[in-house]
Amino acid sequence: MNNRETILEHALVLFASFGYDATGVQEICDQSGITKPTLYHYFRSKRGLMEALLAENYSPYIKRLKDACEYRGDLPQNIAEVLRSTFRFADSNLLFYKLQFSMRNAPARGEAYDIIKPWIKAQHEPVFTLFSEAERDNGNMRGRAQAYTITLLGMANAYIQQAVEENIGLNDDLAYQARQQFMYGIFS
Amino acid sequence: MNNRETILEHALVLFASFGYDATGVQEICDQSGITKPTLYHYFRSKRGLMEALLAENYSPYIKRLKDACEYRGDLPQNIAEVLRSTFRFADSNLLFYKLQFSMRNAPARGEAYDIIKPWIKAQHEPVFTLFSEAERDNGNMRGRAQAYTITLLGMANAYIQQAVEENIGLNDDLAYQARQQFMYGIFS
DNA sequence: GTCTTACTATACCGCACGGTATAGTGAATT
DNA sequence: AATTCACTATACCGTGCGGTATAGTAAGAC
Fold this sequence. Notes:
Shape of chain A: elongated
Low-confidence stretches of chain A: none
Structural class of chain A: mainly alpha
Radius of gyration of chain A: 18 Å
Distance between the termini of chain A: 54 Å
Largest sheet of chain A: none
Number of domains of chain A: 2
Mean pLDDT of chain A: 92
Order of helices and strands of chain A: HHHHHHHHH
CATH class of the largest domain in chain A: Mainly Alpha
Helix content of chain A: over 70%
Oligomer: homodimer
Number of strands of chain A: 0
Number of helices of chain A: 9
Largest interface: A-B, 38 and 38 residues
CATH architecture of the largest domain in chain A: Orthogonal Bundle
């Protein structure tokens, strides 16, 4: 395996375990069996390393999420697909999921949050667009696209957290259950 | 105002804004208009300062939460009170709420998470006890107290986050709405 | 065989961090 | 008047941080 991948791999483990601030570049180098100039050759800075880590792990999920948000007149179907793609994203790389979750909830003026901000937007945007389009077919949803987006993604996180702590599988059954509960919140 | 309170006040703002790791003791001192020995006189360490901050702000909420979890045979009533006390806690000091939320979701082996761990337990425990007792009156809940606890508190957080970003009031109406959605999740 | 390019090690820099040794100060106690 | 105690400032310590200047090395190009 090349050094770049080795570094990314160990950086993920360390960042997820101790956090961005508390993880030193030297420690990443030690774990990866290389020295600092090597790391700085592949990644311009500590921040650049984190940005590369996010790009590699987020990109496939965001792509699938965009597909899941393609509106074709059947909102419950879209919601199911959003939940399924998000559950699979979490399930496929739990360590990265935990890392990005802690960064999303980090203080707003910290560097970690600043780095992840564009990815939060990349996740939020397609879901928001989906609900905005669904509003046209469903009058009583008007003006609530933002609220629905936050609640849906928030609920997905709650289910994932529960599944992790209870050691339940993040399967499609759970996605179905989450969808039912979310739909109840909309039509009541 | 005495120096101890001044320090706590400014520490809250800085910790909530930039995070525990990224906030320097010197910066807290500068903002508070005192010097480091003064801070270290009142608080043994940076960690001790954070512990004091958590104790002062959490204690009243935990006390009210325990009352809200006193089971008297009416689970929906208890759930409403849990949500109400939690919403009021967030509403009364939003800055502290954001701080504790970011710490709860910080990496598990970081110092910030280590400091807040006992308070997570203090919040989790009474709610868990409530659901455990309610299990005796409601057979189809058996063995799910843990899951209900996580989901209820997770849902509360989702609603609070939504209320903050949408500038909705964290009033009792919202608590009622959250309860309805949660109860639907239980009995389906 | 020389030159270029990609990559890697040694050794170091300046800096900000958490924390403290020392020396007070002013008010209450005896 | 002497002593004690709670509190505060100056100046400093050791450490570890992110990042880099320098000097290679090994492989392919010409």
